[in-house]
């Protein structure tokens, strides 16, 4: 990421946060005041509706402010992904590639859209580092989440957790003694909510642990789905390539990974798919690592060149601006 891109992203994200908070926070306060004894029902309804609205706004309007989305070029990859979507009755309307490599080396694929208007997005890093069938295998994994309703189940779990949180908050919102213990002499609903979230954080940690555990199960299921589609070898190779490229910890501490990682560690995923020693040789691993290093060196050289050119351009602009007042003084 270049300095210019970092500053631009920071400005855009800050403006968006200010706008959203200026809308959401007053509405939350008003709903709590207006809702009375059962405000948590109205607050929960508002958050659910707001979430669905943002699920439409974010990918269609906000994310394009930061990244460039283009149609995947006609070719073997596009044909195979559309063929896979047709096979699974996935209503694919558009297939995009996003220039995520400008900001990160992370590789991913995801889908979005409501009803029969689904779209798949591929990170450009995937196209750079994986072969065609390996990319299709990754897409097959993502379509496994769709086929088994994982996104819907995750949403139900999250909304259920949120409802419980608001319901518990309804019992403590009028407890002025809690606010006094935190140093507040007057009752403000927004302050009461913020204090409650601090008190409730241990419970939130437990809820996050449960959600992470469920998400990890879903990842294993999506891997098996891609395996059943006939992409076992391609998925294994793709996962290993991505981990080599991302310099990820291939076998982290199980307890740490269980809490912090929403995706199972690579070794566990490969074991769940079956024996991979007859599929991937040590020679192939060494070759991939060399390829990754070569690509990284090339990308680093290109980024360094772009950064240097940008710095020189900024220096020239600064010198030009500093010369203008001097010329004006001479004229005076």
Major sheet description: 4 strands, mixed
**Strand ordering within the main sheet:** 1-2-4-3
* SS class: alpha+beta
The rough form would be described as globular
Report the sheet-strand fraction. Answer: 5-15%
N- to C-terminal separation? 44 Å
Poorly predicted segments? none
Radius of gyration: 25 Å
Give average pLDDT, whole number. 83
| Helix content class | over 70%
> What is the count of β-strands?
4
What's this entry about, in short?
By secondary structure, this protein is of the alpha+beta class. The protein is 72% helix and 6% strand. Strand 3 (109-112) and strand 4 (118-123) form a beta hairpin.
Structure explained in plain terms:
The protein is an alpha+beta fold and 332 residues long. It is 72% helix and 6% strand. The chain has twelve helices and four strands; from the N terminus they run H-H-E-H-E-E-E-H-H-H-H-H-H-H-H-H. It has helices at residues 3-35, 39-62, 76-87, 124-129, 132-147, 150-172, 176-181, 189-228, 232-246, 254-260, 266-273, 282-331; strands at residues 69-71, 92-98, 109-112, 118-123. Strands 1-2-4-3 form a four-stranded mixed beta sheet. Helix 5 (132-147) packs across helix 8 (189-228) and helix 9 (232-246) packs across helix 12. The protein is globular, with a radius of gyration of 25 Å. The two termini are 44 Å apart. The model has no long low-confidence stretch (mean pLDDT 83).
